[in-house]
Each structure stands twice: as structure tokens, then as C-alpha cells.
Amino acid sequence: MTDEPGFTAEHVIRPVSRRILAAGIAGLAGATTIGALWATEPGSLPTRTQAAFAGLIVVGLTWAGLAAWTLVRRPLFAADRVIGAWLAIVFSAATAVFSGVIAGPFAALPGLLLAVVAVVLLVRARAWRDRLRSQVATLRKAGEDA
């Protein structure tokens, strides 16, 4: 037995994902753009348009919030991946439902396809998080045994 555990900090504490940062920047840019468009409309918008704008702003700000939380909270142990996958499931399923209700069942297919992809991403994210948790447990046990 050696004094060095089998895992180093680089194995369990990874850098911030560029994908999450890109989603956060895109979400903030989208929410800002839609908010500016909504604020500068000369007349009153229809109720459904206002609801759609509000929903898109919430989606964008949610992705920006996840990116900000990812930057502030370290180490994450892949919690950001799991949360991101859940957000993708919720938002793509909501898109499918609203598209299906407004434009018909064929309009819901892209949202349903994205929801299926998001479920696959959730399964992968949970597996990665579980792997990191087991590595952390191994490191803690090795630290206690030393």
C-alpha cells in the first residue's frame, strides 16, 4: 500500500464545462434580446405572445442561473450535468406540449425527440456522478486508513 491514493484531485474536480457556459451565455443573450424586444413594442401584444415571451425569458434566465451557479460552487461532482439534463427534459417536453396543443401533433415531434435525447443525457450524467461519488468515497476511505 502506498501513501498516494489511486485518484488525484483532477479525477474528481473537473473544470467548468464549456457547454454549460455556452448555454448560460446563450440563455442570458436570448432573455436579454427577448426582454428588449418586448419592452420596445409600441403597442400591446396578444396574450399568447406575452406568455411565450415570458416563458422564453424564464428559460434563458434559468440556463444563465445554472451557469452562474456552476462557476460559483466548486467542486460540483457532476451535479451540474444532472441539473442541466433535467432542465433540458423539462424545457423540451414543455416545448413539445405547447407545440402540439397550438400547431398539432406533428409539431410536437421535434420537442419529443429533444426530450428523448435529454433523457439519454440524464442517464449518462447520473452514471458519471455516481462514478465520481464512488471515487470520492474511495479517497475518503484511503485518507481515513492512512
Main beta-sheet strand count, sense and barrel state: none
Span from first to last CA?
A: 10 Å
In percent, how much strand structure appears in the residues?
Answer: under 5%
Number of helices: 5
Helix percent band: over 70%
Uncertain parts: none
Which shape, going by the Cα principal axes?
A: elongated
**DSSP E strands, number:** 0
Series of secondary-structure elements, N-terminal to C-terminal: HHHHH
Q: What radius of gyration results from the CA coordinates?
A: 20 Å
Q: Quickly give the structural class.
A: mainly alpha
- Mean pLDDT equals 87
Tally the structural domains: 2
Helix-strand layout with pairing:
Elements: H1 9-12, H2 18-39, H3 47-72, H4 79-103, H5 109-145
In short:
Keywords: Membrane, Transmembrane, Transmembrane helix. This protein is mainly α and 146 residues long.
Question: Which key terms come to mind for this protein?
Answer:
0% strand; 2 domains; single chain; mainly alpha; 146 residues; elongated; 5 helices
Q: Mind explaining what this structure looks like?
A:
- With 146 residues, the protein is mostly helical.
- The chain has two domains: 60 residues; 70 residues.
- Helix 2 runs antiparallel to helix 3 and helix 3 runs antiparallel to helix 4.
- The N and C termini lie close together (10 Å).
